[in-house]
Amino acid sequence: MNHRFLGIVFIGLLILGVWLVSAIFGQKFTDFDRVALTTSNAGLNLPEKADVKIRGVIVGQVMSAESEGDGAKLELGIKPDSIGQIPRNVSAAILPKTLFGEKYVDLTVPEQPSSKPLQAGDAIKQTDLPVEVEKVLNDLYPLLRAVQPAELNYTLNALAEALEGRGDKLGEGLVTLDGYLKRMNPELPALLDDLRLLASVTDTYADVFPQLADTLRNTTKTGNTLVSKEQKLNAFLVDLTSFSDTTTGFLNDNGNNLIRLSQLSEPIVALLARYSSTFPCMLEGLVKQVPRLASTFRGYIFHIDLELLPNQPRGYTRADTPVYGASNAPNCAGLPNPPIPYPKFPNLDDGVDGIGKGGQRATPGFAAGGTATEAAATSIGQPNRSRMSVGPSGTPSQKALINSLLAPSLGVPVDEMSDVSTLLFAPAFSGTEVSVR
């Protein structure tokens, strides 16, 4: 009996020792100040009683983990002798001890720690800076399953051979790339604005693309036309070259003359500009005369109606020398519908006395009631030497007399005088006395 009892006591002590070791290892006899930590779903993968560290020192453990919405809520147990040394604004991150090792909660002290210590019941925020390796592995797992191991091994070996001995150059390239990225980062807002503007410009191009396509098609037709007319186009270019050479020679020979012509044309152009307002009425008046002129020359025969003036115009004298002194303002003189007879002829400074213009060019003797002899003497401008009476015209002797009077004035022989002269001047001489020198 004693041996059995001792055996039972030994087994009991052995079990009690194992339990004590387990309880001590599990810190069942340790008191903790509990704080809350809200984290992502990765917090649910923490093992039971995972370590809570700060600056590499274990200050507590994870007491429990519960799912809460899109994340997890952890209850951390902090040792009472350590919680007073942890600032209140501490943050937490879930990190692995190794690449595939056990995870733990790492408390990070900020650059400006709070003066108040962490207390039981406080809530700790999770930092977003560390990269969750578990998430990376979870995302990489489907890719690794899709890739065949042999092909992956071949790719990795080729990549290793390509990078072997090129670490320095690769590092320099990464440093250069980092420099480019640092210089590009400040320009990213402007780049985004340019991309937005590019979208607007693209929309504009999309609207005008049909017209652009039509233009390109028309350009193709034009190109085909030029190809089909190549010989004519070449001939045109050759002729154009020859014309250019001729024009160059003409300009070289007459350049100074053209400049002089432009200088001499300046006053003429100025005069035309001054009287330009009369051009429309003058041209319209000429247009209205076209039917009359067509009637006058109908059948290629000149048709006129001759009327004898009651007061014969006086002759011109040496005092009536033409001059260019007119300075009157532009005047259409009733054109395109002038009154007939014109009421008053303008007294222009053309060198002719006013009484010898238009309807005023009447022989003074006739205008004042003088005789035909005085009128004839005045028109000749010389004293009377002999007088000759001219009767009714039409006989050969009368034609010969009129031709003998007109031939010296016209500077032609008497026998070359036309019958028209008798027709025109006989009424003027009829019933008058002519003084002959």
UniProtKB/TrEMBL annotation:
Gene Ontology cellular component list: extracellular region
UniProt superkingdom: Bacteria
GO BP: any one term: biological process involved in interaction with host
Domain annotation Mammalian cell entry C-terminal: ranges: 115-328
Bias-annotated ranges (Polar residues): 382-395
A Pfam family matched in the record: Mce4_CUP1
Chain intervals for the UniProt region annotation (Disordered): 375-395
Protein name: Phospholipid/cholesterol/gamma-HCH transport system substrate-binding protein
